[in-house]
N-acetyl-gamma-glutamyl-phosphate reductase
Amino acid sequence: MASPLIFIDGDQGTTGLQIHQRLRGRSDLRLITLDPEYRKDARRRAEIINACDIAILCLPDDAARDAVASIENPGVRVIDASSAHRTHPDWTYGFAEMNPQQARRIATARRVSNPGCYPTGAIGLLRPFLEAGLLPADYPMTINAVSGYSGKGRVGVEEFEGEGAAQVPAFQVYGLGLAHKHVAEIQQQSGLLERPMFIPAYGAFRQGIVLTIPLQLRLLAPGVDGQRLHECLVQHYADTAHVQVMALQESKALTCLDPQALNGTDDLQLVVCENQQTGQVLLAAVFDNLGKGAAGAAVQNLDLMMAGG
């Protein structure tokens, strides 16, 4: 039996390039991309996508929708790395560690939506608490995150590494209209009833993310504290390979969090910091926005789908 044919549509962007680099040396699959002269040829794109076994879409949202609409072959399976289908009820959300059943759902799915980079950290922290009843679903949630500039795609790389890089601010808060496209995904996939406040930023480093969520213990149920929240995370991710929960003793000794600490890996590290005197907890996630936040998750989902048939 021939190894599956994998089509990467959009292999010139930051995510697509990373996925291509990860897959091109593998012998258990055959890799195909669009030749440069055909990138704007809708007919050629449709021919290739309908001839492959699994298509990985690394395209803008509208182009991803068009690519999916062009699929006529019922045997074609899709991993969409855009945000076009992340809240769509007919698509399986590609966060394998989200719950004990999710990896199997991904393995057998026809359509998988790869999570956004920021939502990976937010959902990874929040969903276990909401499922366990430790966090009210209507909690007034605020999420702060700083990403490397590659999170902005090729535009960000050119901005920070091009000729005008010296004039680019070293730190930029954006999404000031409070309408970032990741908010709906975070709310739906974590289980929040109310829309969270999300404040993203870019720093002058290529890749890596620190995402933080502050909690006031007085707004939680009696008995819920940092230790109980930590225990919930440890239990939820006990059997996962790519999600690590920092030990409480280690988190107590922290003086800072480095957004680049897990660069080059596909891991997600979760941290619980607590000040018992003030009754406050800080949740944090550290990961590579191009690893677990993008290409790493896509390859993880691809491997599940290839194994699951």
Q: What stands out?
A: Residues 291-308 form the longest helix (18 residues). The chain has a mean pLDDT of 95. DSSP finds ten helices and 13 strands in the chain. The CA atoms of residues 208 and 289 lie 5 Å apart.
